[in-house]
Fold this protein.
Amino acid sequence: MTDETTVRDSATARAPHARGFRGLSDRMVGWTFIAPSIILLLAINIFPLIWTIRLSLTNYRANRTAAEVKSVGLRNYERILTDPDIWNAMQATAHFVFWTLFLQVLIGFTLAYLINKKFRGNDLWTTIIVLPMMLSPAVVGNFWTFLYQPQIGLFNYFVGFLTGADPSSFSMIGDTALAPWAIVIVDTWMWTPFVMLICLAGLRSIPESIYEAAECDRASKWRQFWTITIPMALPFLMLAVLFRGIENFKMFDLVVQLTGGGPGSITELTSINLKREAFEKWRTGYASAYAVILFVTVFGLASIYVKALNKVKER
Amino acid sequence: MSFSVTHPSLRQKWIAGTLVILYALLTILPLLWIIATGFKSPSDAIAYPPKVVFDPTLEGYVNLFTTRTRMTPEALEEAGPPQTWYDQIVRQYDMVISGPSRYGERFLNSVIIGFGSTFLSVFLGTLAAYGFSRFKVPLKDDLMFFILSTRMMPPIAVAIPIFLMFRQLGLSDTHLGMILLYTAVNLSLSVWLLKGFIDEIPVEYEEAALIDGYTRFQAFYKVVLPQAATGIASTAIFCLIFSWNEYAFAVLLTSGTAQTAPPFIPTIIGVGKDWPAVAAGTTLFLVPVMVFTILLRKHLLRGITFGAVRK
């Protein structure tokens, strides 16, 4: 971080050198570099966001453009917060986010710890583990429905082989008790490598000298792990949790293809629920309010979390 | 120091290696299964117990790229003997090929939109990153955070107004619309990653160029760009992979001419439960990314953590 500031300072301190380009001041040149990106983001991100907020205060329906648009004040928000369907979706999302994070952190950190032992060929095996996260979640999710088929599915066969259960006796995506776990398993398979890579970066950032000092003080391996490895890798681990948390709160593609929110609405996460309101029931105003609530929730939770993260980093 | 953490013993390496390799084999199994299923006949694909050894056939691939119609025995007789190997495969089921399927077009759309948006987001991203890295921009930190925060929005949440906006502007279901949209989504990652790369290039190089009489823009593309080439390439790969894999916007905003492969592949299965064709389509779509990942692993793995740790 200090490197970055010095680079920046020296760039600005010597800025006068840059003057004299067809009469443009240095600041203007800087803006010409940045402006196109900002304009595109304003047009495709911020303008739509403002539009969403405006729509959320109306009863607009995108499939009936001729109908009169009336302002309904905050009634959409009121209805959403008292709608049991939406609380169900929130609960399904919470279950999904919690368990995926838990498993991914546990497995991801363990793998990173093992890979950091630097056995021969570790980079090749790391790459193989990373493969799932590079693939299209929707396409992969679609194919997992095949692996999850009762009897003929590879997953069911595998579980049957390990536990002795009959592979046709259970259906991961057809059973209301199993479906929430079916999506957790696939997401964990896909995204554990992400947590692993960040943890690995964390473990590799720990200077060897600290361990050497601990050896001199005759600290046990166990103690070294809890007093050096974990605290030093914690900021990285928390960062991984932040990214996965945000992504999984928004989860749509994988689960839509895997279960479509079913059976019933047991795996209907908020994004899937929102899509149904907006593009199947066409309650555009209502869905906009829903979108605003989701965005505020992610943003709020993420900001609180980032504050906590910064405190950990300061220690 | 034989048992130091920094120098693990041979036994520790063995245990760690075995566990990691076991996990890697388990994690790659579903992917190998997809590839294998693409070469199975429909009956082999749904055999119980699952078949590991089977007669490979290209049926899945033929079905993926064609549409077929069932014919009566008389009509088949009239049509004469099969002309090509793929005709022959289809004839086993009393069918003839009636035309190409949509898969080729959808795949091509993915290529066009993927490369188009990657080019644009890397182009704009490099300019912006250079601006942020080298110039005194008012509200720099706020702008950088603003760029990052655009990534926190659930795609479905912005999809509603974008859907309306595209409908107004006639951009729905067009390549241009999708390219602009993916560019905007990728831009935050591209600016953040590239700023990191450009920050690492010493300013002195450009200063020397400026003293030699280069203009700012000449210094930018003759000095900075070549230096940042590796960073630009790895950023491009990330953008390409994102656009290639994206589903939520594609399924909501495209239906025909500009539909990409991810929303199309799940529809291949049809009523006949043709799993080998789905597997074939999935394989062709996923394998390029896998090959890319393995070939470029050094840059990619660095990019993932680099981008994350910076933020």
In short: The longest strand of chain B covers residues 95-100. The radius of gyration of chain B is 25 Å. The mean pLDDT of chain B is 86. Strands of chain B lie at 66-70, 95-100.
